[in-house]
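Study both lines:
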Amino acid sequence: MELADHKSVTVDTGLQVPANTPPDRVALAKSNLRSIAYDTLGVIAMNKKDYAAAEQNFQKAADAMKDQPDAVVYLRLSVAQDNEKKYQAALDSANKAAQYAQDGSAEKNLAKQQQDRLQKLLADKSTPSPAPATPAGSARMWRQLQ
């Protein structure tokens, strides 16, 4: 985990680029590296079942790549939020994952599954019911995202 932390901290000073590289290309490369580092930290946190840390890191990964959003990062963010029982936020992230995923891709299919499951959870939550929501669906989703 320290390596990923180190990478996100030193990307501004430790990245060697050719002298004539346009600044916008350098900025994009730095954003991409930050996103990868935070995504890695999020995966580590998810595997430790530290969902709050996972959510923070996946959100940072998503924020680092606002210009080139990654559907998988948003899907992972959704699963972390789902595990924290932040169902509306999880649905919002799943919606972004579906928006950014290519049609017919595994990511698109997983995002749609997550959307359907969360919509059902939210609908069930709005009607009085003593049955608690099960995390089994999000655990299954996480296994498919690794």
Observations:
- The CA atoms of residues 94 and 115 lie 6 Å apart.
- The chain is about 75% helix and 0% strand.
- The domain at 2-145 is CATH 1.25.40.10 (Serine Threonine Protein Phosphatase 5, Tetratricopeptide repeat).
- The mean pLDDT is 86.
